[in-house]
Amino acid sequence: MPASMQGEIHPANYRFKLGGFEVAPIMDSYVLRPGLTPSFGGEAAAADVKALAAANRIDSDRYFHPFTPLLINTGKELVLFDTGNGSLSAEYEQMKGRLPPGQLVARMGLAGYKPEDVDVVVITHGHPDHIGGLTKGGQPVFPNARYVFGAAEFDFWNKGENVREARKFNRELYVKIAVPLANRATMIKPGDTVVPGITAVDAFGHSPGMLAFMIESDGKRMLNWADTAGQYVVSLQRPDLHLDVDDDKEKAAATRKRIFDMVANDGLLVAGFHMMPFPGLGYVERSGGAYRWVPHSYQMNL
Ligand SMILES: [Zn+2]
Strands of 269-272's sheet, edge to edge? Predict the structure, then answer.
């Protein structure tokens, strides 16, 4: 009997040491999205984006879009950045077919973590793929956690003024999922400390108050840039191109350049929620007036 075909398999768990911290990117799920174009830069940039895709040996009609929360054990507290899609697709008709069911909790289990172990849940910004796993059936998924939200981001979604049409349902989700947790949440701004060694960085633009996080232990540093880049080729090589899912497009483009410059100058390791290949870790190099993503291989395993 020939062995049966088993289907694709994708790595979803990874862990390494950063000084005295343990850092574990865990892929919650992924989706194949149609077209790098017109998502990046609209129709006007279609030819450029297609050429860029060809030069980087990726398809321009479909792209692999991972959702990768980040767990950090500081030795004192277990900190989870973002929660993936959770049961959004099962609980909300509008999310069906748009977001796959989240696997974060199951995959955390494979890595040795229970939901009760999480002490702090940090939400980088309020988009569905980041808040979806906060609750299930209205109950908190991480029952012992306190929460950390960006103050500007929380206010934006909570007040609901100036929410663009495409984000109206996102606002509804935020009010249902995140706002009820406010009584157990700390509201922070850029420069504030989450726990010793983890500090918020201004990454406003992709969403009005998105935060990135500098993570430092025993002199080793890395940046969790959340959704500063939406795709590992186009966002880096054409940071000027406006992305359809960026809420403030001009600010998002300016933030990309500012943060890419910072990590390129400092040679910082980066974790990005939508970066490829898994575990979404890498470095940024200056290239041809823009930037290039250099995926992590074994630098953190030596
Ligand atoms: Zn996202």
Answer: 193-195, 198-202, 211-217, 220-226, 269-272, 281-287, 290-295
CA 273 / ligand 1 centre spacing (Å): 6
What are the tens digits of pLDDT across the range 204-233?
A: 999 999 999 999 999 999 999 999 999 999
Q: Cα separations (Å) of 149 from 122, 156, 194? A: 6, 12, 10
Task: Determine the distance separating the centroid of ligand 1 and the alpha carbon of 206, expressed in angstroms.
Answer: 9
Place of tokens 């194949």: 32
**Sole residue written with tokens 């062995």:** 3
Residue 23 to residue 27: CA distance in whole angstroms? 13
Residue corresponding to tokens 């929360």: 69
Q: How much is the pTM? A: 0.97
How far away, in angstroms, is 279 Cα from ligand 1 center?
Answer: 15
Least Cα distance to 182 among 225, 227, 131, 108 occurs for: 131
Count of residues in the chain: 302
- Ligand 1 midpoint to CA 131 (Å): 10
Distance 130 CA to ligand 1 centre (A): 6
